[in-house]
Amino acid sequence: MANSSEHQAFENLESKAVSQPLVTNIYTADPSAHVFENRIYIYPSHDIDAGVPEDDFGGHFCMEDYHILSMDTPTDTKASDHGTALHIKDVPWAEKQMWAPDAAYKNGIYYLYFPAKAKDGAFRIGVATSKNPAGPFKAQPEAIKGSFSIDPCSFVDEDGKAYLYFGGIWGGQLQRWQTGKFIADVKTPFDLEPADNALALCAKVARLTEDMLEFDEKPRDLVILDENGNPLLAGDHNRRFFEASWMHKYNGKYYFSYSTGDTHFICYAISDSPYGPFTYKGILLNPVIGWTNHHSVVEFKGKWYLFYHDCVLSEGKTHLRCVKCTEIFYNPDGTIQTVNAYKL
Ligand code: FUB
To answer: Which of 69, 95, 187, 204 gives a 20 to 30 Å CA spacing to 171?
Structure first.
């Protein structure tokens, strides 16, 4: 905190928080929640303070491992920390920055999908496997072929087909892949961002192979349309995709939710197909304390929950976050009531 009035403003907001940190022994972020074996498992980033100065590329998010959390029910006030499930030293292709992960279960195996920067400076997405939802996980020796950028979200549909959603702009590098090859030489993360009146960059989606270890197809654009059926534009910062993909299904419809990055919302869009196109529907979560906003949505015993993070535990340090949970509510027309993480 820079000064006492900022500190006071922070304390006022903190006292209005609707949920408390699920763990306080470590900093955690980007919670991907799933119900495995009748228990809630949370796959978060593990934030650390390694003294890397803050920059626009996100260099200060310099995480080195993953810890998996679990809870009996989402209404527990505390989660259990299962310790280190995967460390970067055990991932042959990865050099640094283990960002937001996700997990899936299929045919008796748990899969952990995670992004990290490879030695050439490009983010790639890796996969690791375990027989246990809490790990430890063993990484594949190479990143998923054809993978790039960050924030993988795995989704296994009711017909057994599995998909990986991913991508993030700015520090997440999506804008550096527009030619199909990684453009290594940029001065800022904004260099290759499309003009405001051009189409927004899209999140990507690819079906996974039966063994869940590779893409079964070339990643496709996940297009988000506005209320008139037009794709969102790059200048539409309140609605366009930035990072933090999440997919869930409710009443037979596909809900794609994501962060708008520099405007700090979690928004959502609905489709009849896992590939889209999706139609923008609104804000799921208003901005939280800290720059980033990241989430997941999961059903447990007939109720729906939003997992998210903020920076309350570190008194506002943007790279030291804590995961939280709150119930969400659908309207009869399938839209979701916007969550405010702090009482108004
Ligand atoms: O945790 C590092 C990055 O911050 C994530 O990959 C983004 O989604 C943002 O939450």
So the answer is: 69
Provide the whole-model pTM: 0.97
CATH 2.40.50.320 is right for the domain spanning 4-328? no
CA 343 → CA 13, 213, 303, 305, distances in Å? 8, 43, 21, 18
Of the candidates 265, 304, 267, 260, the one whose C-alpha atom is nearest the C-alpha of residue 282 is 267
pLDDT of 191 > 60? The answer is yes
Residue 263 CA to ligand 1 centre (angstroms) = 14
**Domain boundaries defined on the chain:** 4-328
Region 23-27 average pLDDT:
98
Atom of ligand 1 nearest to the CA of 47: 1
Taking the centre of ligand 1 as the mean of its atom positions, its distance from the CA of residue 219, in whole angstroms, is 21
- pLDDT average, residue stretch 304-324: 97
251: left (phi over 0), alpha (psi -120 to 50) or beta: left
| pLDDT bucket at 233, cuts 50 / 70 / 90 | very high
Nearest residue (by CA) to ligand 1, atom 9, is 292
